[in-house]
Amino acid sequence: MGNRLSKITTRTGDDGTTGLGDGSRVRKDDVRIAAIGEVDELNSHIGVLLCETLPDDVRAALTVIQHDLFDLGGELCMPGHTIVTDAHLARLDGWLAEYNATLPPLKEFILPGGSRAAALAHVCRTVCRRAERLIVALSAEQGETASPAPLAQAPRRYVNRLSDLMFVLARVLNRAAGGADVLWRHDRGASNGQPEAGSNE
């Protein structure tokens, strides 16, 4: 995985480039660097979510996911190197099945909100989707069969399933806080969701 940082300020990036794990250098606005940055941002948002009061099992899952995302960023940083595997995907699938089984079926769209923890989980979900878009863009640019460093499918599949899991966990966290889903009101009508004059809402 390359050398661990012993000196934070290296000045090697002053020219607008950054080093990859294989020793090559690319521009800091390269799509690969953008994808790595989105994964890093997602991991940071999960770190903020972990500052909240959470059920022990959710906390444990999110901690594992943080380590997975660090591995995923490492894979993106080292062209041709594989870290994320089908086992990582299977673990997400297991959590999705486990937590979704505890929730009532959705009959309406829901809004991001409710408890603070649930709202933060929705932020994680949206950042995860952004990371997915960049990884898809990188895949299109590099090609999954390109030589010498094809982009594996597992990182893209991982963030796709993780965004679903964050949606489910937001619902779980609202219930853990004693609340429920915040439903989108499709029948707001001409009032556009605003209380009418004289209303006590």
From TrEMBL:
Residues 8-172 form the Cobalamin adenosyltransferase-like domain. One of its GO terms (biological process) is cobalamin biosynthetic process. Residues 1-23 are annotated as: Disordered. InterPro entries: CblAdoTrfase-like, CblAdoTrfase-like_sf, PduO-typ. It comes from the Bacteria. Keywords: ATP-binding, Cobalamin biosynthesis, Nucleotide-binding, Transferase. One of its GO terms (molecular function) is ATP binding. Gene3D superfamilies: Cobalamin adenosyltransferase-like. It catalyses: 2 cob(II)alamin + AH2 + 2 ATP = 2 adenosylcob(III)alamin + 2 triphosphate + A + 2 H(+). Its EC number is 2.5.1.-. Belongs to the Cob(I)alamin adenosyltransferase family. Homotrimer. This is Cobalamin adenosyltransferase. The lineage of its organism: Bacteria, Pseudomonadati, Pseudomonadota, Betaproteobacteria, Burkholderiales.
